[in-house]
Known about the structure:
Chain A has 19 helices and no strands. Chain A has helices at 3-6, 13-41, 43-59, 61-86, 94-111, 116-141, 145-166, 186-189, 200-204, 212-229, 231-241, 243-248, 253-276, 291-302, 307-325, 333-347, 350-361, 367-372, 377-390. Chain A is globular. Chain B folds into three domains: 4-238, P-loop containing nucleotide triphosphate hydrolases (Rossmann fold), CATH 3.40.50.300; 243-355 and 443-535, 3-Layer(aba) Sandwich (Rossmann fold), CATH 3.40.50.300; 365-441, no CATH class. Chain B starts with a strand and ends with a helix. Residues 15-16, 18, 20, 38, 40-46, 413-415, 424-426, 428 of chain B line the site of adenosine-5'-diphosphate (ADP).
Amino acid sequence: MKLKQLFPRSRFQGAGFQSFLASAVSIGFGLVFGMILLVCFNISYSGQGFISLISAGFSSSDKFAKVLYQAAPLIMTGLSVGFAFQTGLFNIGATGQYTVGSAFALIGAIELQLPWYVCLLLAMVGGAIWGVFPGLFKALFNVHEVITSIMFNWIGVFSVNFVIVNLSQMLAKDWGLAQMDRTAPLDAANPSAILPKLGLDKLLGSNYMNIGIFIAILFAILMYIILSKTTFGYELKACGFNRNASEYAGVNSKRSIVFSMVIAGALSGLGGGLYYLAGTGQYSLLKALASMGFNGIPVALLASSNPLGTIFSALFISYIQVGGDSMQPEFVREIIDIIISVIIYLSAFSLLMRSVIAKWISPQKAVAEVEQALPDETAAENSTESEATTL
Amino acid sequence: MGEYVIEMLNITKDFPGIRANDDITLRLRRGEIHALLGENGAGKSTLMSVLFGLYQPEGGVIKKDGDVVHIKDPNDANALHIGMVHQHFKLVEIFTVLENIILGVEPNKMGFLQKKEAHRRVVELSERYGLKIDPDALIEDISVGMQQRVEILKMLYRDNEILIFDEPTAVLTPQEIDELMGIMRSFAAEGKSILFITHKLNEIMAVADRCTVLRKGKCVGTVDVKDTDKVKLSRMMVGRDVDFIVEKDDAKPGKTVLEIKNLTVPSKAHKNNAVKNVSFNVRAGEIVCLAGIEGNGQTEFVYALTGLEKPSAGRITLKGEPIVQIGHKRGLQSSASLDKTKPILMPIRHRSKLGMSHIPEDRQKYGLVLDYSLEENLVLQRYWEPEFQNKGFIRKDQVREYADRLIRQYDIRSGQGPVTPARSMSGGNQQKAIVAREIDKNPELLVAVQPTRGLDVGAIEYIHHQLIAARDNGKAVLLVSLELDEVINVSDRILVMYEGEIVGAFDPKDITVQELGLYMAGAKRQSNESEAYSA
Ligand SMILES: Nc1ncnc2c1ncn2[C@@H]1O[C@H](COP(=O)(O)OP(=O)(O)O)[C@@H](O)[C@H]1O
Ligand SMILES: [Mg+2]
């Protein structure tokens, strides 16, 4: 099966409702399956666990703030993956772009002591740089973007670790703190780099709350406008759907491909910026790829790559993750991860569901009915023959 | 067993916004060649897809040998020995011919593929019916004609007895068409029954026993071919009389619009050049036709002219402005200093702005973005013009208005009008959409490559009139065609291309189809060519 088929682009109005319904039904299946797993792992707490899984996100304003806090970067990586799909590219490099964006933002904040808005810009630049390479390789040498993206994911992680360790004041220990393997917390290193909270933190009584989610929603709307209302989006999509035809129409397809990847990279990079500039998380020097980038893939899938749908699918996945966190300690972390993955995985079956739903909506007439309605055979024969002779 | 192998009774099939088949009854006799005729979008492919199990009809029944059958998918069709060659082939490009033929019915021993046995059978079948193929070639490397033979072998390999051909001749050269006709006759002689869709009335008269005519989804009737003729058939199909000969006045050529000098284009398929040192002019107010058998360099020539491929040498000017200028041993050095011969390769968009329009040979590869709607495709060459965008934002209302006008004016039929996905349109209407877009751009030079391929006689007549109207408006038209009738009927000047060279230039009034054929086949060539065609 081709990737293109996996990621349909909801192009035609009538399909919009169907894909929403399909996503809803898949989420339902995912939850049912999650419930079954809970029963298997720990039957006595399964009911309670399931309730906290599906209700924790709304259980307190603090939890709700956390849903929004995690949703912001998820929206960005989802937009990144979805935007690339819409323009015919599979951006599996979102995680690398996210990591490099995070690093650029943190270097701006800690090493260079810049304010938050400049750091966000830097995050986009960092992500864009990590997007431009796969774009150039694809455009100039026709190397598939999946291969280069995967390589650049790892190059990204290790370069970032290397640079952060070798800068003079990036790590927490440089600021007199005990932690060895993390960047300095922003409230100690540079409070002006923390995203403004506009009093929302007090309103919801949570330190997690800031303007990040609004920035992410703004970008979702922006991407929607670019893709569906501008000539630029028209060119990028044309190139994604049919590169030959776009060249025939005078579009510079090489430029389009590079632009698509740069934009996708900038979106992921901004996601990294939004996450770390919230001031609540510290970048840790892991030898692993950030899951936030990969989770952009199910977010985009669940939204059929529609930028506005991405807002909702990211909120859903963030909500389930917060719910999962609250199932501890009755369930161990790994089991929760499995359950969440299963829900996300089944949710991504929305394509399958869509074709099923399409069949429900326009059911075939029963064959028996047709047979009864069959007119007398000889009459039919005569009528066609006589019609012919009159001509 | 009764007279009919297949009876499709009162078939009705709806698509969003359109009833593609409306109460159609078609009966196929054993061992007959049954033609299915109808305008583009009349519902022929849909009806055949119903028989092949790709679509489920809303109404009607299908009988095989007198018994009602339910064909839910192509596997059911296959079990009933029904096979189909689709209008757009369904082959896996990166598989070999053999792998494509056995796909789905692979002979195996405990899960291991038994290719040898399959190979033997395929070769045997291909020899028996004269279907020349290379079992080990990759699909992406072979010609369209051979791809079609692969599709036919797929049916034979599955022992199909009812063979559906959906516009098989639209993509073939005249020689290949003759071969195919012969093969179809031999199938019928063996007792296989054939359903044959075509727009070419000559072909129906030549091979078919009976013909069923559809118009706008309805069945007009079934006639015996021996009791009818081309005029009657086309009247049944279009509902009015059709002119086969295009009426036109003599050309009044004006100044030169397109000038081609010593153009050489390398070939992708072989080491030789595909186009060798070709020079000619096209003037305003004339239709110049580049005739030739497929594969003699016309495709590469057009790609170089329109900017899809880079020539290795030569100079092309459009309205006096150089659009291609690439160093050449003899041609260009005479123009003195070196920096003057700095290579020029104008991008496609600029050529288009300068007044070039291009109806491409391959409508699905170049002409359309199939996942875009009809209206989005209709502005594919013009979306950037101020009429359709404002500061980078697409003016959707303008696009809609423009699309509505083209759809009306060019009679582009589709289920949902401007928002119809291009992919769901019938092949002929896709072609009409491209023709409408390119002619309506009001170009100075219209490059039309096989603009009527796959169209019904009514639509062909219309497009020929449009080409002549463009000419009478003082436009230059370069027509590339494989159809001899079209070449002789429409053009004002004929250039014959053979193996990348122009081997003759003629006035259509002075040459017969037979003689033209000799030049196209390379059996004859004009001696002092360079004089003859600089006109
Ligand atoms: N899959 C589809 N979805 C929607 N409309 C379709 C589809 N296939 C065909 N149509 C419409 O049905 C009509 C008949 O099409 P078709 O059978 O392909 O015509 P033709 O006689 O040229 O083969 C056309 O108007 C076409 O646009
Ligand atoms: Mg058709």
